[in-house]
């Protein structure tokens, strides 16, 4: 039977590239998005045009009820879940910590951390061999920011990704004997629209000289790393981190 993967935040950028690559590798894909239905439907159409199977499901990762509905939609449409890519993530305008308020921190943590816990919970309940599931793979999209700290830009975002790294370590051990592997990919500076939401659409151009490989990465390069964890070659990797950062 065809395996099913949920990619959160898959209407563009790294999520869209991952959804398309997953479909190319035989997965039926749930393309989650928050507001850009047109872009999500375009990803679904591209997958369908290549002979794949996908649905677009709107759900705001900041809302636990919507996350539950998202998984219910997968249950009713596909009837199984084999893979989860926790990709949806946000950052806010570049700012030193001295100008950050608690509301900003809560917005970041809701989408980048709380939602990932909730999605992992829903996925584990469906995949765990302890509960009659068939096992599965979870890949969390962290960031090199978790290790670099993003001073002067967004320490809040960097710290949220640090939480994702710790979640990955803990959950990987918690569910290892339930047929579920949990890993993370840490992208560096990747050429997507996320930098515009930080207030600097041209950020990749500015910082690429600080990258040892002297360029930004592509969404497809990150998607390839994410998808590696779904291959048989990754069968012994759990609690692992794959940095896709050009050496940064
Ligand atoms: P992006 O181009 O800004 O795309 C973000 C995606 O997430 C969109 O599909 C968006 O959907 C969705 N999204 C945003 N808020 C959401 C919410 N509340 N609920 C559901 N979906 C939501 O981002 P990206 O650069 O591809 O980043 C993807 C992941 O990689 C993020 O976790 C990010 O932190 C991480 N990352 C990126 C970089 C980089 O340099 N680009 C580096 C390190 C890590 P809509 O279109 O509907 O709004």
Automatic annotation (TrEMBL):
Q: Which InterPro entries match?
A: NAD(P)-bd_dom_sf, SDR_fam
Q: Which family does it belong to?
A: Belongs to the short-chain dehydrogenases/reductases (SDR) family.
Q: Per the UniProt entry, what species is this protein from, by scientific name?
A: Bordetella bronchialis
Manganese among keywords? no
Q: Which GO terms describe its molecular function?
A: oxidoreductase activity
Please tell me whether the keyword Magnesium is annotated for this protein.
no
The family database entries (NCBIfam families) matched by this protein are listed as: PRK06123.1 (NF004777)
Which SUPFAM superfamilies does the annotation name?
NAD(P)-binding Rossmann-fold domains
Keyword terms, alphabetized: Oxidoreductase
Spell out the CDD domains in the cross-references.
SDR_c
Protein name (record): NAD(P)-dependent oxidoreductase
């Amino acid at each position: 039977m065809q395996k099913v993967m949920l990619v959160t935040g898959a209407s563009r950028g790294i999520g869209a590239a991952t959804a398309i690559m997953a479909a190319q590798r035989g997965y039926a894909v749930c393309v989650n998005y928050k507001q850009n239905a047109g872009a999500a439907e375009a990803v679904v159409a591209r997958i369908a045009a290549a002979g794949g199977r996908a649905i677009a499901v709107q759900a705001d990762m900041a809302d636990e009820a919507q996350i539950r509905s998202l998984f219910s939609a997968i249950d009713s449409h596909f009837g199984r879940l084999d893979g989860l890519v926790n990709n949806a993530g946000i950052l806010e305008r570049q700012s030193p910590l001295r100008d950050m308020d608690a509301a900003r921190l809560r917005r970041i943590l809701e989408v980048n951390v709380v939602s990932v816990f909730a999605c992992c919970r829903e996925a584990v309940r469906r995949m765990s061999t302890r509960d009659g599931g068939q096992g599965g793979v979870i890949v969390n999209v962290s960031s090199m920011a978790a290790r670099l700290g993003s001073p002067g830009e967004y320490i809040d975002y960097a710290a949220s990704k640090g939480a994702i790294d710790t979640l990955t370590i803990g959950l990987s051990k918690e569910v290892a004997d339930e047929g579920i592997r949990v890993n993370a990919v840490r992208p560096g500076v990747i050429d997507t629209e996320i930098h515009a939401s930080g207030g600097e659409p041209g950020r990749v151009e500015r910082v690429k000289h600080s990258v040892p490989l002297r360029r930004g990465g592509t969404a497809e390069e990150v998607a390839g790393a994410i998808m590696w964890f779904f291959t048989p070659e990754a069968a012994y990797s759990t609690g692992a981190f794959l940095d896709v950062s050009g050496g940064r």
